Amino acid sequence: xxxxxxFLFYFFSMLxxxxxxxxxxxxxxxxxxxxxxxxxxxxxxxxxPEQIINEVNGLNFFSQSFNFDAFNEPFVEExxxxxxxxxxxxxxxxxxxxxxxxxxxxxxNSLDLEFFSIEAAPTAVLTREIAYGPTGRSMDIIRNTSAIxxxxxxxxxxxxxxxLPNPAVFxxxxxxxxxxLK
Length: 182
Known about the structure:
Elements: H1 2-18, E1 38-49, H2 50-55, E2 60-67, H3 74-79, E3 80-91, E4 97-104, E5 110-118, E6 126-132, H4 139-144, E7 147-154, E8 168-179
Antiparallel strand pairs: 1-8, 2-7, 3-6, 3-8, 4-5, 4-7
């Protein structure tokens, strides 16, 4: 009798396995797959010691344009969705400073400008994030950027020296962008 119950148990278990509910498999789901990685990269790093700032006559102690053709590839230009550019400025000098990051198109026209006014040391590290895409500024700014110009103006004098060791101004920027790989 015990064997009959065991046999019936296994029989109905196997019957249940073969007749269990299962959806028809949809192998066309691959076409609906979206792969959107987030690429992160450093954009700029500029370090200027206070000694150099003191040696420059005039207010503008630094101005340089950097080539930036990161989004000129057609695939990237067409599939970039959104992003964030992060700026970080640290001033350990005795100088109050004005710093600007300007995005330029291939003809040198300004597309976007980010301006910072920083007091003399000691100050906290200034961090600012700017969003581009549906929740921020236009992605066309990034798509059309061909160069980034960084300018720095000394609003102080050319004689003072910070009491901090190795006084300098540090400009850092990085970017995180989402690209649809579909």
